[in-house]
Amino acid sequence: MSWSATGSEARIRKSLQTVPKNIVQVQLFDDRYSQLKARALAASDSRDPKPLVQIPPSHAIVVDGVHVYVQLTGYHSVLQDAQRQTEARHRRALQFLHTHYSACDLIIREYDAQRVDFHGPRLHAVIVTPPGPANERRRVERALEFAQAIARMVEATGEAVLNGEFKTETRIGIDTGRSIAVNSGRGAEPEPLFLGSPANYAAKLADGTEPGIYLSDRARQVLGMLAAGSLFDQRRQIYNLQHGGVSTAGTLGPSYITDARIKSLSADVGRDLEVIFREANFIFHRHTPPLRTIEYERLSPANSIHMPLVSIFADIDGFTKYVDYCLATNQIPELVSNLHAIRLELAAVLKHDFDGRKVRFIGDCLHGLVAEGTAYETDERETVRRSVICAAAMRSSFNLCRTILPGIANLGIAIGIELGPTPITRLGIRGEFSVRCATSKAVSDSEELQAGCDGDQTALGSRAFGAASPDVQHLFDATTRRARDLDYADASERLSLDSSRAAALAAPATIGTSAGWTTRAAASEGAIQNSGGNRHA
Q: Is 153 helix (H, G, I), strand (E, B) or coil?
């Protein structure tokens, strides 16, 4: 299997036919919620409807909601021996995440919040009820209550498990505003995604080591608080849990969940500890490459994969600005159609052209895995080589997307690659609440590498660089281990991959000019609070 410009272009055009912008249906969350509520009442169903679950691919829901990002700050201390990359250390890290995922999901259910995703030590959730513009303050209040409940639940669970071995603090970011909800998954693997600056900004506020609850200026203003100013100042402003919050926030509404209820739930976790750890008895096996044959629905703690592999993060640079521009100019159908085509193409390059496996989309970012070798060992040198060529093909496919799809010529793609032993499994409450998980130092490092790249850069981690052949190393700057504009034509020619076919397969794309949405979007600071991003789900 290999990449070709002809095949990539055909896939992109086919994706556009699957979800063309003229069939994309855009609906306000409030309208969808009211419709589902009416149907539930007619069917004598007292349960609250789930308007953001199983959204059809051709639909987009415009949501006024409060985004909450929770980071378990103690996770990396669990991985403190990760330099040795042992199965035992990874097993402990997975037990840590499995326990806290399960506990957090109990609070999510209590609040009837929408859990978007767990990604390593980070939870993304959104509060969307009560609906309506007039209820934004109540949603922010509920988000604060939810954040405090999560923090207390994590603390109580940590104290109850293994004599406090899993104790951790939390750092929580909160932002409110309008975003677009879509579903990027299929069948039993839905992937709810929220596109726009609120999710992105909440993630930025949660990014750090100092615990606490951090409010964006938008959330502060809704509560009648003074704005903090810059992102740096907002990151320093802690909503103090120990002293009942910031006094200038005013009086919060009636508490949605009591301390007694949290103690009761944490006691349930404690009583269920034996069950949790029986379920969290992680048993590892190798998966014989190619990784594209991994079936996530068959994975569980007792049936988990552990093997050396490459983790790839590929993020669309500038996409949050593009989303905010499309929201402001009512170009959501074009956005949804473009996003659908880009995601399908990047995933196809990974899976069909290079035998890799997608873990998930995190907002506009693809996380994928690649490995070459046998049932007994991973060929690390060849794995790095194939991964670099895969990343180069992703860039070439993205360049084709920029020529074919309208309005995205100003976007870029930033890619991070790292090698290391990595477990792959499913965690959390069984059934529909369980989540795919691939977490390791290689995963964390590849994400950080991608985050540090510009939209024309590919970065290779230190371990991947060390395992790479000299010809692969020569593609990257020896100091930064980054390469600019590394596309399939360059990689295939310089790495002698199908060298006789390289010119025919990888004809370079010509990037045309766009309507200049970046310049126009930048004129509205209120619509764009941040400059892209890579951590939101």
A: helix
pLDDT tens track for 487-524: 999 999 888 654 444 445 455 544 444 444 444 444 43
Q: Sign of the CA dihedral 333, 335, 338, 339?
A: negative
Residues in CB range of 374: below 8 A, 6 or more apart? 288, 289
Which residues, at least 6 apart from 37, have a Cβ–Cβ distance to it below 8 Å? 48, 49
pTM comes to: 0.87
CB atoms within 10 A of CB 272: 15
Mean pLDDT of 242-260: 47
Residue 435: phi and psi, rounded to 5, are -130, 150
Under 8 Å CB-to-CB from 35, ≥6 apart: which residues?
none
Q: Is the peptide bond before 130 cis (omega within 30 degrees of 0)?
A: yes
Q: Across residues 168-179, what is the average pLDDT?
A: 95
* pLDDT band of 347, cuts 50, 70, 90: very high
Six-digit token string for 454:
């510009």
Closest among 347, 386, 352 to 488, alpha carbons compared: 386
Chain-centre distance of CA 443, in angstroms? 12
Cis-peptide, bond into residue 290, ω within 30° of zero = yes
DSSP at 77: H
Quick one: CA dihedral 352, 6, 459, 344, positive or negative? negative
> How far are the Cα atoms of 93, 155, 300, 361, 510 from residue 78, in angstroms, in the given order?
6, 15, 21, 25, 47
- Give the residue, 533 or 95, on which the prediction is more confident: 95
Q: What burial class does residue 44 get, using C-beta atoms within 10 Å of its C-beta: 0-12 exposed, 13-18 middle, 19+ buried?
A: exposed
Q: What is the mean pLDDT of residues 84-105?
A: 84
Averaged pLDDT score across all residues of the chain: 84
> In b/e form, how buried is each residue of 300-311, taking b as 16+ CB within 10 angstroms?
bbeebbbbbbbb
Q: Are strands 304-317 and 365-370 parallel, antiparallel or unpaired?
A: antiparallel
Instruction: Tell me how crowded residue 34 is: count the other CB atoms within 10 A of its CB.
Output: 15
Nearest Cα residue to 170 out of 147, 186, 146, 193: 147
Nearest to 529, CA basis, from 334, 323, 269: 323
